[in-house]
Design goal:
Number of strands: 31
Distance between the termini: 55 Å
Strand content: 15-25%
Organism: Eiseniibacteriota bacterium
Structural class: alpha+beta
Largest sheet: 7 strands, mixed
Shape: globular
Radius of gyration: 27 Å
Protein name: Xanthine dehydrogenase family protein molybdopterin-binding subunit
Strand order of the largest sheet: 3-5-1-12-9-10-11
InterPro entries: Ald_Oxase/Xan_DH_a/b, Ald_Oxase/Xan_DH_a/b_sf, Ald_Oxase/xanthine_DH-like, AldOxase/xan_DH_MoCoBD1, AldOxase/xan_DH_MoCoBD2, AldOxase/xan_DH_Mopterin-bd_sf
GO molecular function: iron ion binding; oxidoreductase activity
Number of helices: 19
Pfam families: Ald_Xan_dh_C (PF01315), MoCoBD_1 (PF02738), MoCoBD_2 (PF20256)
């Protein structure tokens, strides 16, 4: 409600007594040796301070999967925009002026900026997955198809830029408040670099204006910068980026180069898939290994193939590091595999629906990891439902015929279909290692309060988690509140990522709320003389003879008289989920979300500019807890994926982003949004809260390939890269990349 009324306080709305402002001096070179750094304090604004890597008390690295990402460059800079020094002064303007008092001498070094140059360097990470006998399968295939697919950088473009405030209170406690997804990530990074114990650091989010993965890792770096300045100056320090700086230096979606070699039978059945995945990781590892992991595990799409060989690399370039973004490696590989499925269908003169129908996975099929899919598998069901709703099969044929008859400047219209899936929760044993705790407790006024580390950033977890607790305990929603995710108070229930909040954390909240309810009822029976066989319904405690008491009254009495006040439980992953992280064999995810998209487009015959008209989505995400929010997540993810397909790409020259302004980085607006229709199949999964799976990332995977297939259906041009801009479509047409039927 605070966001609706304008009362929500974002990082830049906050101020503290004596607060000063920080700024960052960044490298102008993609690769260079730092020969000398000089702080000319006499020419800086009064009271300004400067710190460099020599002022860092602990390791000079942001602790994520490792600490190879420097807090401040030391001796070598590895990308344009890499932080080299920090300043702080009384105003933002003074802090920026203070940057001019830092003199740095560089010796430029040769950068690696292209795929070919990156291959000359040691990869940041590699991963392979093998299933069956790939070579024998290729010898038995009736046809073999090969193609290379590429995708570019995509910017998260959250509505609120990165921001952080750091200060030390009178007791020496380091306090951080800012825009972030994962407060415990930030706390661990601060402990590592500043060498401060856990109980001396409190981290909590302010109101967060969107994230989409872009505030998973980067806030740790910014929090360290602000904390270093606060420690050095003795003042609270605010650092908030403007849009230009945010676009220029924050991680993006990994560009990809994906090579497919696919063997099929004459009927179109997949026999062998050899897939080589290259991701551009930028200068440092950050979260790239787990992005590659998910890419490898989703590379075959929701299709049955008995023989698979996948090899993935994260290549190093002298560019801004790439990291988390909604979908986390899956959108890139979904685009590639869906394009290859279309390639096979085209060559065998099959309808895109038919080839998917004969290859789609069903329960009891095996994935490339050897995982046997269970009854929660719904790829075939969403495919059948989207065909039932859209009549795709017939309409695709009709539009193919219309394209063949089209003359001159007659309108071009096409329709496209895609299938996608997304593993819910952390990969492999991630949830087993974390065993995320969640707490539900009574408040002094008799309500229940949910304590988790989940961050509200527009996706609705501050509503969903109390809603789950309320439903589990028999309370009205107004009798359950969520505590702000302050690391000094809430348990580490894990990051707000990986489509895990509702399914994983929500499931633990459900169990904890039920247990607290049962304990309160038992206490009331023993201490208040309420009698046996009590139940709580609609926030009323009801007895067998019709007696009714408000839960708040009993909850308040329980709290005041020393009864059970809180329950903390841990997530319990299924015992049957076994996964070998050395071979990538086993159950990578306990369950998956499944989706089908059908998207219709018009193409301007003069400019080749695509215009999406209608997007139909069918998804199975278990039990839908909050239909309105779930629909909003699916529609928003679909529109974001349409931008990925058609317009969004960070252009780069010599290691520097060229379109680092909102005027030049083009995203879809509501005026560009097609009409959307979303259908959810209600198939509760026993492992999630009230049967829920994850929803956040699934729609990002499938919409882009559906748009691209629609463009091919309309024009006969065969796109092999994202975004498929009018300029690229024209070039492919001139190069003869067409179906050959026009």
């Amino acid at each position: 409600m605070d966001k609706v009324t304008g009362e929500a306080l974002y990082t830049d709305d906050l101020t503290l007594p004596g607060m000063i402002f920080g700024a960052t001096l960044r490298s102008p070179h993609p690769h260079a040796r730092i020969k000398r750094v000089r702080w000319k304090s006499a020419s800086a604004p009064d009271g300004a301070i400067c710190i460099t890597s020599g002022d860092i008390p602990g390791p000079n690295g942001v602790q994520l999967l490792d600490d190879s990402w420097p807090v401040l460059a030391d001796k070598i800079v590895h990308h344009i925009g890499e932080p080299v020094a920090l300043t702080a002064a009384a105003t933002r303007e003074a802090a920026q002026r203070a940057l001019q008092a830092i003199e740095i001498e560089y010796e430029p070094l040769p950068p690696a900026l292209s795929w070919e140059e990156a291959e000359q360097l040691e990869p940041l990470y590699t991963l392979s997955l093998n299933h069956g006998d790939i070579q024998q399968a290729f010898t038995q295939a009736d046809s073999i198809f090969e193609e290379e697919y590429r995708t570019g950088h995509q910017e998260q473009l959250y509505i609120e830029c990165q921001g952080m405030i750091a200060w030390f209170d009178d007791d020496g406690m380091l306090k951080i408040i800012g825009s972030m997804q994962c407060p415990y990530y930030v706390q661990k990074a601060l402990m590592h670099t500043l060498q401060i114990p856990e109980d001396k650091i409190s981290v909590k989010p302010a109101a967060v204006g969107g994230a989409f993965g872009g505030k998973e890792d980067f806030p740790s770096l910014l929090a360290i910068h602000a904390a270093l300045l606060a420690r050095h100056s003795g003042h609270p320090v605010k650092m908030v980026y403007d849009r230009h700086e945010d676009l220029m230096v924050t991680p993006k979606r990994h560009p990809s180069r994906i090579r497919h070699r696919t063997g099929v039978s004459k009927e179109g059945r997949l026999l062998a898939m050899e897939i080589k995945i290259d991701l551009d990781g930028g200068a440092f590892q950050t979260l790239s290994p787990v992005v590659l992991s998910r890419a490898v595990l989703h590379a075959t799409g929701p299709y049955r193939c008995p023989n698979v060989q996948i090899f993935g690399r994260v290549l190093r370039t002298h560019t801004v590091p790439n990291a988390a973004f909604r979908g986390f490696g899956a959108p890139q590989v979904h685009f590639a595999v869906e394009r290859m499925i279309d390639h096979v269908a085209r060559a065998l003169k099959m309808n895109p629906f038919d080839i998917r129908k004969i290859n789609v996975v069903h329960p009891e099929d095996r994935l490339a990891t050897g995982q046997v899919l269970d009854e929660s598998t719904s790829a075939h069901l969403v495919l059948e439902e989207v065909e039932k709703i859209t009549k795709f099969r017939r309409r695709w044929r009709s539009m193919e015929r219309a394209r063949a008859r089209r003359q001159g400047d007659e309108p071009m219209r096409g329709i496209g279909l895609s299938l996608s899936f997304h593993g819910a929760g952390f990969t492999g044993l991630g949830e087993h290692r974390m065993r995320s705790p969640a707490t539900v407790r009574l408040t002094a006024d008799g309500r229940m309060e949910v304590l988790t580390a989940q961050t509200e950033m527009g996706q609705g977890c501050s509503t969903i988690l109390p809603q789950i607790a309320a439903a589990a305990a028999g309370l009205r929603l107004e009798d359950v509140i969520a505590h702000e995710p302050d690391t000094a108070v809430v348990p580490d229930s894990g990051p707000t990522v990986a489509s895990r909040t509702t399914m994983i954390v929500g499931g633990t909240v459900e169990r904890a709320a039920r247990e607290l309810r049962d304990r309160v009822i038992h206490w009331a029976q023993e201490h208040l003389g309420t009698g046996p066989d009590l139940e709580i319904r609609d926030s009323e405690v009801r007895g067998p003879k019709g007696s009714v008491s408000p839960f708040r009254d009993i909850g308040r009495a329980c709290y005041e008289q020393g009864g059970p006040r809180e329950v903390t439980l841990h997530h319990e992953p299924p015992a049957w989920q076994e996964f070998d992280e050395s071979t990538y064999r086993g159950v990578a995810y306990a369950t998956y979300g499944w989706a089908a998209h059908v998207i219709e487009v018009d193409i301007d015959p003069d400019t080749l500019e695509p215009r999406p008209l209608k997007a139909t989505g069918v998804a199975e995400v278990g039990r839908v807890i909050h239909p309105t929010m779930c629909k909003g997540q699916f529609e928003g993810g679909t529109l974001q994926a349409i931008g990925y397909a058609l317009t969004e790409e960070m252009k780069m020259k010599q290691g520097k982003y060229l379109n680092d302004r909102l005027t030049t980085y083009i995203i879809p607006t509501m005026k560009d949004s097609p009409k959307m229709e979303v259908t959810f199949l209600d198939r509760p999964w026993q492992g999630g809260a009230f049967g829920a799976k994850g929803i956040g990332e699934l729609p990002m995977n499938g919409a882009a390939p559906a748009v691209i297939q629609a463009i091919e259906n309309a024009t006969g041009i065969i796109p092999v890269a994202l975004p498929s801009t009018p300029e690229r479509l024209y070039r492919w047409m001139m190069e003869g990349r067409t179906t050959g039927e026009d």
